[in-house]
Structures are given as structure tokens and as C-alpha cells.
Amino acid sequence: MSFDVDRVRADFPILSRQVNNRPLVYLDSGASAQKPRQVIEAITRAYEGEYANVHRGLHFLSNLTTDNYERVRAIIARFLNAPHEDEVIFTSGSTEGINLVSYGWAAPRFQPGDEIVLSVLEHHANIVPWHFLRERQGVVLNWVEPEADGSLPADKVLAAVGPRTKLIAVTHMSNVTGTIVDVGAIARGTDVPVLADGSQAAVHMPVDLAALGVDFYCITGHKLYGPSGSGAMWIRRERQAEMRPFLGGGDMIRTVTRDAIDYADPPLRFEAGTPGIVNQIGLGAALEYLMDLGMENIAAHERSLRDYARDRLRSLNWLQIQGDAPDKGAIFSMTMQGAHAHDLSTILDKRGIAVRAGSHCAMPLMEFFGITASARASFAMYNTRQEVDALAEGLSFCRELFA
Q: Which of 21, 223, 335, 391 has the fewest CB atoms within 10 Å distance of its CB?
């Protein structure tokens, strides 16, 4: 099936609105993507005619909602080509997922002096939980810097592995630069467990967990055109068996007495409390929407956008693109001499163009580039070449103002 961007755009109601009397050009999907009508309708349907709590009732609505909720686990497994459905653990997003691994798997196992290999490309969600282990247990963080162009060769990550390395935690795609990291080559090159942050990568390209060989992989729903507060952490069965529960409460137990607890089998063991029922149902609708379009088709469209945007932005020789690696997604972080990133974002917003400005929850990477902030344009499947042109024209207008 060919990819028809106009047809896709028609599924997103918000894209027809205006901002500051200009057509909305939404280039902040790296922070949070807009939602198609199919997701909005699934959420509305779940609340209007099907809602009840899951797993706890014998009545019709509870059984119906439980079925609709639990089927999302199979949808996520299919979307990621996960080997087993019960390896999918529902979370509120990647941050909760990585913290689950930190508290449930790493904290009980790591000793003072044990090492975690991290890249400087990481989002804070894949940094702060490991700092907790550094502060509280004496774990050592071993940092790997990218190349000057923002790329991160697998060999460079593997070279940082030592006899006390217990985990490699690395992004699959940088949220700042779009750099794609070959996490499969990293996993194949070592026996050390690998956690891959798939928050960006799973949005922009097919992910095949059966082929990648990593041990942990997280996705977050709000970037995948689904609701905020939805997501999943895929954890290999062998690693689940090594984990202790992270949160305690309902659903993660079989029985509780005054003297003992008998825990439920995974994945419920790691899903305490009433979950984000409708959020996850909405995520399931989003992933089915993506699979209907075809992730290969989406990736091809976005590669075309990336190449066109790269040419347009490179032609602005006064604009600095931070970390423009050859193998990357359609994400561009930009700086301009004499203007702060916040200035660029504010001026572009007056023209209806939404970009992100700041450190993008990646302060170590900002430090590596020698900057404190950038303006980031992150493209999605619903963006067009005309919107790339609008961005380039808006940046040229910024240049005129600051010349």
C-alpha cells in the first residue's frame, strides 16, 4: 500500500486548525504526537459505553473492558514482534518502564563498583534511574560519547564494556538529534544485558525484538499517536524471573495473609493497582492504526522528509544543525548565532510553526555540543514537504530579525 500523507492528515482533527491566524505546522511530535480520530473514538467509546474496572468483576462490563484492555498486550507484542505476549508489561510510559527495571531488576543485583554503560545521547528518563543506583548503591556510570556528528557506533559502546559491566542502557533513537543506534549490534556483541530506550525509534521505523536480541525495550504511548499515560516495557522472560516486584498492591498478588504474600505470575506481578485502562485501550487503537498504514511505509515517507529537510536546512549556512548523523530520523536540533533557541521557537510560533526549545531532557548531550539549548523540529508521518518549506522560511525570517 502506498503512503498517502493527505489521507493520513485527514485522520488528525487538530491539523486543520489555525494558530496565530496561520495554518498549524506541528513539528513537535518528538515531545508528543497528535492523535488520529481512530484513537479519539476508541477512547470515547471505552468511556461512553464500555467502562468498568478490569480483572476484578464478574459482571458484563468488567469482562468486556478486561478483554479490550488485555488484547492490547497482544497488539503491542505484534507491533514489536515480541517473542511472547506475557513479556509485555503495561506501564504509564518509558519513564516508569525504565524505573521498573532499575528498582526491580538492577537494584537487588548490583554491588558497589558494578558498572552501567550509558551513552551521552540519553534522555533523562534513561539517566536518572541509574543515578539513583550511583547515589544509593555505589554503582559506577560509564559514559560513552557520540562522534562529533552525533552518531554512536556500536563498537564504541562495546569498547566501554568491562569485567564489572552489568548493564548497557542506550537509546535506539536520540530524541534530540534523531541518531539511530544499532542496538542489535550492541546486543549481539556482548553477553551483558542491554536495555534499549525505544521511545522515539518505535514511532519512526519497524522494530523487531526477536531479531534485536536486547533484554529490555520500552515504548511510550503519547509519542506513538496514543494517549499520554500509556506505554509498555518489554522484558525477556529470563530477566523477569530475576526481578522483584516494583510496586505493591492489587492485581500483582495471588493471595495476601498477615504473614505472607504469594505473587502473581508476570506480567501482572509488575502491574500493581488499577491501571490506565482506557489509556492502554487507546494505545492499542494507535498501534493498530500504525500497522494498518505499515511501519515500512511510514519510515519511507519520513526518510524522504528527512532528506528534503536536511537539504533545505543545510542551505541556510548561518544555521547550525547539532548532531546531523548520516543514519538518523527526521529530527533536527538547530542553533543560530546571536539568537537563543527560545527566541527562535517564539518567533516561529507567531507563524503557526510549533517547535521545541530547551535542553530536551538531555542535558549531558547539550554539554557535549557546547550549548545550553536548541530549537528542535521533529517530523512525523503527517508532515509534508510544504511544512519543511514553511520552517525554512520561518527560520530565514528569524535571521532577518537578528541580522
A: 21
Cell, residue 160: 566501554
**Its pTM surpasses 0.90:** yes
Residues belonging to the active site = 361
Closest CA to 140 of 106, 105, 95: 106
CB atoms within 10 A of CB 186: 27
- Just give the CATH number of 40-292: 3.40.640.10
Strand-strand pairing, 165-171 and 194-197: parallel
**Which CATH architecture fits 5-30+295-402?**
Alpha-Beta Complex (3.90)
Beta strand 88-91 with 231-235 is antiparallel
Looking at this protein, which amino acid is placed at residue 68?
N
Unique residue bearing C-alpha cell 504473614: 259
pLDDT in tens, 113-141: 999 999 999 999 999 999 999 999 999 99
E-assigned strand segments in 20-96: 22-23, 25-26, 88-91
The values of phi and psi at residue 88, to 5°, are: -90, 120
Residue ranges of the chain assigned to CATH 3.90.1150.10: 5-30+295-402
